[in-house]
Amino acid sequence: MSPGMGAANQGRVFALGSAVSFALIPPLARLAYDDGASPGTVILVRLLFGALAGAGVVLLLRRRWTIPRRDWLGTGLVCVGWVAVTVGYMASFYYIPVSLAVLIFFTFPVLIAVFGPLIAGQRPEPGMLVLALLAFCGLALALGPDVAGLDWRGCVLAFIAAMGAATTFIAAQRLVVEQDLFAFSFHLHAVCFVVVLLGYAVAGLPELPATASGWLPLVGVAAFYISAVLMQFGAIRLAGPARASVVYNAEPVLTMLGAALILGELLGSWQWGGAALVITAVVLSTRVDRGP
To answer: What is the 3-state secondary structure (H, E, C) of the chain?
Structure first.
């Protein structure tokens, strides 16, 4: 195995670990919501703890805090994409079924497979595009969205989140290589936290859990979010955005498994069939030999 493929496989492992961490957040967030917390609370807690974790590692390892001036624009673009994902994805649940929001959001690997190479002045890689489409079909089967009575606002918000995710993956590829990973994560989360907090200050501050037991899943959300983000940047650095994003198609399937274990939600035969297609696409993505 070549050094390049070894790094790519390590990146896929990071991507899978990140996907597992991200997948555990929705059921834990649901527990927090049931205790009175609002989605805005979860968003702000994730961003705050992401910034604190980045700052803590930078202080502990005595890394440099500054971002090179040449990377300011790129970092700002990633911040815009991150806010779009965080707010757009969560807000879409208010207007359309969660399954449909997830399905629309996970078109971002297809967007990356098509537009990523074009932005880099290259042709889209056919193998990655086919695998992304296969995973998308699996998601359609597994999630089985209810299309009755759709609200266009929810569809637009979910697609904005998908474009934000694609933007983040593509724009962050060079930044996480050239910058210190933890300093980059700190600046990203700090900026996004301030932006979202200002937005909620205008629209109305979010609500906190009503009891002490409601804080436990909220802490779990923060912990899994920190691990998910750090492993995500590592995956992008080692495997590239296209390969890493295909692995993330396993996230909604893992979310369904987490919901079954934590919330007692049961999976049907069609959902398992779709899950099999997603997992197949993820496994086959490890056999694509072209570089990122």
So the answer is: CCHHHHHHHHHHHHHHHHHHHHHHHHHHHHHHHHCCCCHHHHHHHHHHHHHHHHHHHHHHHCCCCCCCHHHHHHHHHHHHHHHHHHHHHHHHCCCCCHHHHHHHHCCHHHHHHHHHHHHCCCCCCHHHHHHHHHHHHHHHHHHCCCCCCCCHHHHHHHHHHHHHHHHHHHHHHHHHHHCCHHHHHHHHHHHHHHHHHHHHHHHCCCCCCCCHHHHHHHHHHHHHHHHHHHHHHHHHHHHCHHHHHHHHHHHHHHHHHHHHHHCCCCCCHHHHHHHHHHHHHHHHHCCCCCCC
